[in-house]
Specification:
By secondary structure, the chain is of the alpha/beta class. It has three domains: 2-276 and 414-448, P-loop containing nucleotide triphosphate hydrolases (Rossmann fold), CATH 3.40.50.300; 282-403, SecA, preprotein cross-linking domain (Pre-protein croslinking domain of SecA, Alpha-Beta Complex), CATH 3.90.1440; 456-597, Rossmann fold (3-Layer(aba) Sandwich). The relative contact order is 0.11. It binds adenosine-5'-triphosphate (ATP). Residues 114-117, 120, 135, 137-143, 429, 547, 549, 551, 581, 585-586 line the site of adenosine-5'-triphosphate. Its EC number is 7.4.2.8.
Length: 663
């Protein structure tokens, strides 16, 4: 499993820090947990919650004429006048909240030209209460976050709006900045390339847009800075006595977070530990990996080793172990090679690097570096590396410079990090099936918000073909027909390699297209902006599955809107729906279909026998079962890993209660 690596490259002192709000142990005790899980009473409450949100949203909508009549200055003054009431945070003061929301709604219409729909007001109220809000793709989550952010900021809380990457953080911040500015609130944006001073400035703003990775690393840096002063009380005392001039801190505490694409952050990426590290030099490492690869290449499957693709593991057989020992001896390898366990581990890793990881799929080689491609977003993660020497092994295989091994300074998972917020909220397009997990892990109740306009997408179902060449031919034929009719088509692929293959087939047919994959994210915005034009053909990796807003032109809508083709099912059906969600946004027409091959990895890895059956008897029920079963098994496996990770995290937390925090 890849880890996200960050380097602690800085740490100069800065000026004052306010007391750093965060939760020390947000979890209830074991009995509470047990009860919550068994009784599901929070779920039972969700309909009530929805009704309450609806009632309040109605109150906000009813204030429209009153606020419409105000001048800009009067509107601003009305919001400022509510500040003391919001600051007092009296539980029953719903009126102040409703009026503040109505003010934001009015201001939004004036400065952004968009007035929040009732469902968006409902969503925003949910966020402000600290809920997980499920809104369908394309319903306008960016705008939904704004009233909650404004009101929390007016009440003095540092607000973090969390997105999955820098590009979305910058885009969403720019889109909404004028609205915050109207109320005199400042907006900061964090970019991965920023230095500590710039980061601190951005966090000092009332509202900060930041990616989950950047936010978590900055928090880890703060924890290291705070390490010497354990415990809140001492920290506060120090901050008071020294005017806070001790250590440089990035954040102003964890008060309120609005996490966009929360299913991705809380679930898909939850398994990835974030590790802050320094690099340790090891001049002999490169030779070690080269030797391991040479030895591994001399072993044969299945006599010497077996590959378990489902669990991504390589096992050496007894014969393989013997051969390894002989070959290491024959090559006169010494040092680690003389130790049996080390020798076998090196061989296993080299075999994994050779047989389980492929360039263009799990990683790309760019600028002389091995860079991991995120399976869920299709984006390159430059900060990420595989652990335990695997990364170095792949570097050696690709003949690029072997980087030093990392030494861990602090680590945390997203799960543990986000649980520390005083108030946490999330938005997701596809979250209801994860409601129990959100509740268990984050104490978050999920509430589904209805659509603003009914969905008009036509779902054309799935076509299964035998193998990959047949798939790309089938895709090309569909595209040619749609292109001829002037409709734009978006083709989603699971890997960079697949996007290139698809592009080659389109090229051969003379179909003009754009490729949007992890290897050229700079032109992304322009390509996406064009993707809704008449006759446009866009091939994209998962990148297009999250947050990208493709706006079809009026002429295109008349023709039936954007058509989305999925070319490989993802391990999670949620991600499939994210891709399909690129069309039919805001109640627009559109259509979706899947064209997949029985040779796709999902089937060979999770349901090999059903796949064989499907090859012989390709009838509907078998094909349906194939997909459902493969995705079901994949999801179950991931859920298990997450549960184990959570258990491990809790154990770590308990163990650290005795020895002091490591992060
Ligand atoms: N109240 C509104 N009035 C007018 N346009 C709106 C309104 N709300 C949202 N939009 C528009 O709807 C489109 C979709 O918004 P946005 O990209 O925020 O959706 P989303 O829910 O975040 O989608 P995804 O789940 O795919 O990320 C945008 O073009 C946005 O400007």
């Amino acid at each position: 499993m890849p880890e996200v690596q960050g380097l602690l490259g800085f740490g100069r002192p800065s000026r004052g820090i306010a007391p750093y709000a965060e939760r020390s142990d947000p979890r209830g005790n074991a009995v509470d947990l047990w009860l919550e899980r068994r009784l599901g009473w929070l779920e039972a409450r969700a309909p009530l919650l929805r009704r309450r949100l609806l009632r309040r949203a109605d109150q906000v909508m009813a204030l429209e004429p009153e606020f419409r009549a105000l001048s800009d200055d009067a509107l601003r003054a009305a919001a400022q006048a509510l500040r003391p009431r919001l600051l007092a945070r009296r539980r029953g003061d719903v009126e102040a909240l409703v009026r503040a929301f109505a003010a934001v709604r009015e201001a939004s219409d004036r400065v952004l030209g968009k007035r929040h729909y009732k469902v968006q007001v409902m969503g925003a109220l949910g966020l402000y209460e600290g809920r997980m809000v499920e809104m369908a793709t394309g319903e306008g989550k960016t705008l939904t976050a704004t009233p909650a952010a404004v009101v929390a900021a007016l009440a003095g809380d540092p607000v973090h709006v969390v997105t999955v990457n820098d590009y979305l953080a910058a885009r969403d911040a720019e889109e909404t900045r004028p609205l915050y500015g109207f109320f005199g609130l400042t907006v900061g944006v964090i970019d991965s390339d920023m230095d500590p001073e710039q980061r601190r400035d951005a966090y000092r703003c009332d509202i900060t847009y930041v990616s989950n990775a950047n936010l978590t690393f900055d928090y880890l840096r703060d924890r290291i800075a705070l390490k010497a002063r354990r415990g809140q009380a001492r920290h506060r005392a120090l901050a008071l006595t020294r005017g806070g001039a001790g250590q440089p801190l990035m954040l102003r505490g964890l008060a309120f977070a609005i996490v966009d694409e929360a299913d991705s952050v809380f679930v898909d990426e939850a398994r990835t530990p974030l590790i802050l590290s320094t690099t340790a030099d090891d001049p002999e490492a490169a030779q070690l990996y080269a030797d391991a690869l040479a030895l591994a290449r001399s072993l044969t499957e299945p006599a010497d080793f077996r590959i378990d693709r489902m669990n991504r593991q390589v096992e050496l057989t007894e014969a393989g172990k013997r051969r390894l020992t002989e070959r290491a001896r024959a090559a006169r390898l010494s040092g680690l090679w003389a130790i049996r366990l080390a020798r076998e581990e090196l061989a296993r890793q080299a075999l994994s690097a050779l047989h389980l990881f492929e360039s263009g799929r799990e990683y790309v080689v760019r600028e002389g570096k091995v860079q991991i491609v995120d399976e869920f977003t299709g984006r390159i993660m430059p900060d990420r590396s595989w652990q335990g020497g695997l990364h170095q092994m792949i570097e050696a295989r690709e003949a690029v410079e072997v980087t030093g091994r990392k030494e861990t300074l602090a680590r945390i998972t997203y799960q543990r990090f986000f649980r520390r917020y005083m108030r946490l909220s999330g938005m997701t397009g596809t979250g209801m099936e994860l409601a129990a997990e959100f509740r268990d892990t984050f104490d978050l109740t999920t509430v589904r918000i209805p659509r603003h306009r009914p969905l008009k997408t036509r779902q054309l179902g799935a076509t299964f073909v035998r193998d990959e060449p047949a798939k790309w031919q089938a895709v090309a034929e569909r595209v040619a027909a749609l292109h001829g009719a002037g409709r734009p088509v978006l083709i989603g692929t699971r890997s960079v390699e697949a996007s290139q293959r698809c592009a080659a087939v389109l090229e051969a047919r003379g179909l003009p297209h754009e490729v949007l994959n992890a290897t050229q994210d700079r032109a992304e915005a322009e390509i996406v902006a064009e993707a809704g034009r008449r006759g446009a053909i866009t091939v994209a990796t998962n990148i297009a599955g999250r947050g990208t807003d493709i706006i079809p032109g009026a002429d295109v809508l008349a023709l039936g809107g954007l058509h989305v083709i999925l070319t490989e099912f993802h391990e999670s059906a949620r991600i499939d729906r994210q891709l399909f969600g690129r069309t039919g946004r805001q109640g627009n027409p559109g259509s979706t279909e899947a064209i997949v091959a029985l040779s796709d990895e999902l089937f060979t890895r999770f349901t090999p026998w059903l796949r064989r059956l499907a090859l012989r008897v390709p009838v509907r029920p078998v094909l349906w079962a194939l997909r459902a079963r493969a995705q079901g098994r994949a999801e179950a496996e991931h859920a298990l890993t997450r549960r184990e990770q959570t258990a491990l995290d809790r154990q770590l937390e308990r163990a650290l209660a005795f020895s002091g925090p490591t992060e």
